[in-house]
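RECORD TYPE: inverse folding
INPUT: structure tokens
STRUCTURE:
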């Protein structure tokens, strides 16, 4: 369908950009997702505690700055357009019944700057792929508004199309050519989801 085709093409300039041309993530995010983002500190605290209590203290410690809630650095927040390696870490169980800690192998990610000025982050391989826009926020973080594709789906859904696919998180620089996308209270599996992104 045309809608699916548009979702596959990040540079949907007909609407003035991928999300209608605004640079304010608050105008795009649903209230429930914005509320979850506002409870980021709680997600970090509970997710880390659950992972450590579940016997994964060594793994969490080995993540270093990636698992430090305060590791975000100021300056050079935007990753340059190009290809990256990325991996997902999930901490805490969303419903208390799942795994307290899961880390995945490295996959491929990309960052694209469209002619319209949209900065798009995509996880392009793996069974859970994500794509969305990076919005300015503070001097230490960008806000990510995106959605997940699952399995062998050929296109990414748009944020707002299907609630259970939607993601709202923050992108922080945590080192030289190293970033993390932090999604608090994701819709599936975990209390906190991290995507480590390296050049």
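DESIGNED SEQUENCE:
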């Amino acid at each position: 369908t045309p809608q699916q085709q548009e979702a596959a093409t990040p540079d949907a300039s007909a609407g003035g950009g991928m999300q209608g041309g605004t640079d304010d993530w608050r105008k795009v995010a649903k209230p429930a997702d914005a509320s979850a983002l506002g409870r980021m500190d709680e997600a970090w605290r509970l997710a880390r505690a659950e992972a450590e209590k579940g016997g994964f203290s060594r793994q969490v410690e080995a993540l270093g700055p990636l698992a430090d809630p305060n590791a975000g650095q100021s300056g050079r927040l935007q990753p340059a357009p190009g290809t990256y390696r990325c991996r997902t870490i999930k901490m805490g169980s969303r419903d208390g019944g799942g795994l307290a800690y899961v880390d995945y192998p490295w996959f491929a990610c990309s960052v694209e700057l469209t002619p319209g000025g949209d900065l798009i982050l995509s996880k392009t391989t793996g069974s859970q792929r994500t794509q969305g826009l990076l919005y300015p926020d503070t001097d230490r973080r960008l806000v990510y508004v995106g959605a997940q594709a699952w399995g062998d789906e050929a296109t990414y859904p748009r944020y707002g199309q299907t609630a259970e696919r939607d993601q709202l998180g923050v992108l922080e620089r945590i080192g030289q050519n190293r970033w993390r996308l932090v999604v608090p209270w994701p819709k599936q599996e975990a209390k906190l989801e991290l995507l480590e992104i390296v050049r």
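NOTES: The chain has three helices and nine strands.
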